[in-house]
Write a structure and sequence with these properties.
Elements: E1 2-3, E2 6-7, E3 15-23, E4 27-29, E5 37-38, E6 41-42, E7 47-53, E8 58-66, H1 67-70, E9 73-80, E10 83-84, E11 94-95, E12 100-101, H2 103-107, E13 109-114, E14 119-123, H3 136-139, E15 141-142, E16 147-148, E17 153-160, E18 169-177
Amino acid sequence: MKERGKEMMVTEHARALAWVGIDTIRAIPADDEGPVILGGLVQPGRSAKILTRVYRPFKGDRLVVSRDSAKVFQITHVYAGCDRAIPSPSHGPIPLEPFSVDLDALASVGKAAFDGTTLSLQLNLPDGLRKLESAAGVLGGPFPMPVAHAGMDIAITIENIGKVPARLRGAFLGMNLL
């Protein structure tokens, strides 16, 4: 591409697999109504906001949460910087059970390759007899997000809908745009 006789470089973003962790151990109260989080445990009926800063542009595509967390939490808001991801104001809270995974199986993912359209994974499971229920059992469910640029926070507000204090652990899976 040329501009007024000068050659201009057009940069193309390289993509690299990435994840952004979410954990109520780093959460702050979503309201001002007394103690909500004690030792990373969100009290029943209360909401908490988890903030995670990204240091490279990040585009989330999937959400994974631990199976034990998925039963007692729901998402009320997600923001990538100033952009709302989902749910939109017209949607209600999102239950987390469709995004539940065996975090140990996810941690056992070996080599991963991305060719721009297809993600290929090699699973290193502890015993050869163990079968996965489905790809979603390892990779969670689709959760498309706007790009969070370097220095921006991803903010997720969750609510404990269970009867006991609980901790939420999970991650957004996606791509770093280098």
